[in-house]
């Protein structure tokens, strides 16, 4: 060791954000039926950069899914759109109420804008849906 004391104790459960898995990972929707249920039974909020679908779950934490179609562009553009949406979601995560399934759908302009613009659009959508904590 270099003589520096390091805190090796694991973080307490109360230290992490309530909408994340242990280790700070974002909890995602993985099954097709989860996406379909959110589309069909949830409500939607539309913005020129992003569409948000929201469905209340009974899990006590929020799960997120990101969809990008081929209308967005090639693989590079679709991956950029997902990356930008994921980063904006990460920034807003502490403000989001737990207990919802959220699906973000990228639109044509999404891969061409900066992360802060997506974050602003996402914040407007979530505020309109009543998901942001007061």
Structure characterization notes:
The protein has 134 residues and is α+β, with helices and mostly antiparallel strands. The protein has three helices and four strands. The protein has helices spanning 32-41, 75-92, 115-129, and strands spanning 43-46, 50-56, 63-67, 100-106. A four-stranded mixed beta sheet has the order 1-2-4-3, with helices on both faces. The protein is globular, with a radius of gyration of 17 Å. It starts with 31 loop residues before the first helix and ends in a 5-residue tail after the last helix. The relative contact order is 0.20.
Summary keywords:
134 residues; alpha+beta; 3 helices
Question: Nutshell version of this structure?
Answer:
This protein is α+β, with helices and mostly antiparallel strands and 134 residues long. Helices cover 32% and strands 17% of the residues. It has a four-stranded mixed β-sheet with strand order 1-2-4-3, with helices on both faces.
């Amino acid at each position: 060791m270099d003589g520096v004391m390091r805190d090796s104790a694991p973080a307490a459960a109360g230290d992490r954000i309530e909408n994340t898995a242990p280790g700070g990972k974002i909890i995602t929707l993985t099954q097709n039926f989860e996406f379909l249920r959110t589309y069909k039974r949830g409500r939607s909020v539309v913005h020129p950069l992003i569409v948000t679908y929201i469905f209340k779950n009974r899990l006590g934490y929020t799960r997120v899914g990101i969809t990008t179609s081929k209308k967005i562009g090639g693989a590079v553009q679709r991956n950029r759109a997902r990356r930008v949406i994921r980063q904006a979601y990460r920034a807003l995560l502490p403000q989001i109420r737990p207990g919802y399934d959220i699906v973000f759908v990228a639109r044509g302009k999404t891969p061409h804008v900066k992360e802060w613009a997506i974050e602003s659009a996402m914040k407007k959508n979530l505020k309109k849906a009543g998901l942001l904590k007061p």
